[in-house]
Design a protein that fits this description.
This is Signal recognition particle subunit SRP68 isoform X1. The protein has eight helices and no strands. With about 325 residues, the chain is an all-alpha fold. Among the domains are: about 110 residues; about 110 residues, Up-down Bundle (Methane Monooxygenase Hydroxylase, Chain G, domain 1), CATH 1.20.58.80. The longest helix is centred in the last third of the chain and has 41 residues.
Length: about 325
Amino acid sequence: MIDSFSICPFGGTIISCGLLECVARELEKDLQGSADSLPVEKRLSIFDKIFAAYHEARSSIRSDLVSAGNAESVKDDLSGLDKAVSAVLGQRTIERNQLLVKIAKSKLVRRHDEKNEKVTKPEELVRLYDLLLQNIADLSDLVSSGRDRRQEEVTFAEECSLKSLAFRGERCFYLAKSYSLAGKRAEAYVLYCHARSLIEDAIQKFHTANISDPKLIEELKTLIEECRANSCIEHATGIIEEVKAPENLSKKISNMSLTGAEKKSAKYLLQSLNNYESAVGDSNIKTAPHIEAFPPAFQAIPRNPIVLDIAFNFIDFPSLENRMKKDRKGFISRLWG
């Protein structure tokens, strides 16, 4: 495992890296010495301080690497030091993400308590394992880079590949859980079987490579049993649902009406104040709340009076001919009428 710094010919880099290394080591001792007694928030804050120390050390190394010029020996030493710091930073990132996975697993099966604590969904664990797989791949690429690889680097890269296989199996397990919660029995069954195959392959390769990680291997063995149990449950549930499907379909068809009978009108809140029934409905069932009818029905409202002239057709108006202007006719017009 790569967790030590190389000797750097630059005095400033040696001092700064040494001081930052001491700070990081002390924080790691606090983190590992009382890992179970420290609260989660405290452990995460310690990880943040460790990351800050290593990032500052790497920044100092890279600034000296830029100003090293054409000195090949100095550049090689600084590159090796930068690689070592990056490797340690990658390892601590994986440890922090594993802590987040542990926290998420503890909340996966926990029920809602009085504080309404959020319960972890399987999809969140799938995303965390995606991050772990990416971290493992980056660390493996970093260790595998370089011209002259030492034996410990080869061993560490092999260990990274085995951990990646184990994380793939765990990711597949929680992906199967998410499909199971969605009611997709066939997909969940196949994923559980695939997760079991990946985990068994990982355990076999751990034994073949003589890599001792008792905690991880014990966790993988427990996960194999869970995969086997869950795959049997999904298989049985899928068969039951398939057998009951025609029966449920016939019940739904028998409840259908071809006469177009009206449904029973639901009582609203103001109409059933004396009954202890929820007007909002059950949160697990998608039904409309029966608080008040919306949109409201049309109602008659008072308006200003409208005057209609209904006597117009019955009025006998007087003659106005005597008041009309008469045309005067000439002599010729009077002769000819």
